[in-house]
């Protein structure tokens, strides 16, 4: 609950900790008792529980969401000379992981209404070198994976669900129509660890085995037997224990986010802001609640004066980042107008389960108040 005069942060991890502190402390204490910190009971249990939550046959715990994508591409044999179609309206990690895998990112524009990968643009971007598609379920709103698959028959799809734990599309869980899904458990995520952590889910047992080896120096069986050259991308036991404690609450947290975002939609009606379109087949989990307004910076500043924090996800499209200069990549048609417009006008409003209806009402009233009389 948020009192009328309290500051409203973008995300409130302290409120979450106040609610479940003893469970987290008990989980960490279990690991301290055992003194077993890597690849042990907590990681195995988390993998089983997270796979069940995702309705996926296999979950592989890894060190973070960026590595999750890189390892999936490695395990699929995607590397130098190959192209991976993705979006530029995302966090740098999506494209960075493709580049770290040695492949060439091909960035297409997003749909102007849903803000996720446009299947039409995918069809136009295909070349004989296309080896994977990497849609992002941005803000927790699932991209249309079946439509993307239909636009690129036979090309493996890897879903970046760093922001979409528990989201559903076309009646199935995220991952039901693709080769693999990557997740991030960065602390502020809908399911967040107490440090870096990530996971992959897949229905392909061979891919799962390759990923388990890749994350652990290619080990198989004995400690010093290495089948392939892998890396160290393991999840720490303490993180797995924290994630297990939080996973038990995830369905209720997601339901709270869905309730609060429905209220935002209702309360923001008539404020003159644009909202992300949610297709009738999509069940988003609202990692972020994002509005568009041409005077985004003025709006953010005025909200800050009213003690309301906001964020911008993301202000610079990946294809315009200095990091991409001199690095092999392709931008569909040389320009991504929808991506540019989103970067210039998107504003993330506070969203977290403990925000409460009062918090949403206060933010929405402030948005109305600031924009009343704005010339748009
Ligand atoms: C869309 C997206 N992809 C990938 C990542 C990378 O995850 P991590 O920070 O766990 O490496 C993140 C989160 O930070 C993200 O939001």
Characteristics:
single chain; 376 residues; alpha/beta; Aspartate Aminotransferase, domain 2; Aspartate Aminotransferase, domain 1; 2 domains; four-stranded parallel sheet; 14 strands; binds pyridoxal-5'-phosphate
Descriptive account of the structure:
This protein is an alpha/beta fold. The protein folds into two domains: 16-247, Type I PLP-dependent aspartate aminotransferase-like (Major domain) (Aspartate Aminotransferase, domain 2, 3-Layer(aba) Sandwich), CATH 3.40.640; 250-371, Aspartate Aminotransferase, domain 1 (Alpha-Beta Complex), CATH 3.90.1150.10. It has helices at residues 13-34, 41-54, 65-75, 92-100, 119-125, 145-151, 205-214, 237-247, 250-267, 296-305, 337-345, 356-371; strands at residues 58-62, 83-87, 104-108, 130-133, 158-160, 168-169, 172-173, 180-184, 198-202, 274-275, 282-283, 289-292, 330-331, 346-349. α3 (65-75) crosses α7. The chain is globular. 48% of the residues are buried. The site of pyridoxal-5'-phosphate has 15 residues, from α3 and α4.
> What Rg, in angstroms, do the CA atoms define?
21 Å
**Overall shape:** globular
For the largest sheet, list the strands in their spatial order: 1-9-8-5
CATH class of the largest domain: Alpha Beta
Span of the ends, CA to CA: 33 Å
Structural class: alpha/beta
- The total of helices stands at 12
Content of β-strand = 5-15%
CATH architecture of the largest domain: 3-Layer(aba) Sandwich
Poorly predicted runs of 5 or more residues: none
Number of strands: 14
Largest sheet: 4 strands, mixed
Which small-molecule ligands are present, each listed once?
Answer: pyridoxal-5'-phosphate
State the order of secondary-structure elements, H for helix, E for strand. Answer: HHEHEHEHEHEEEEEHHHEEEHEHEH
Domain tally: 2
At CATH level 3, the topology of the largest domain is Aspartate Aminotransferase, domain 2
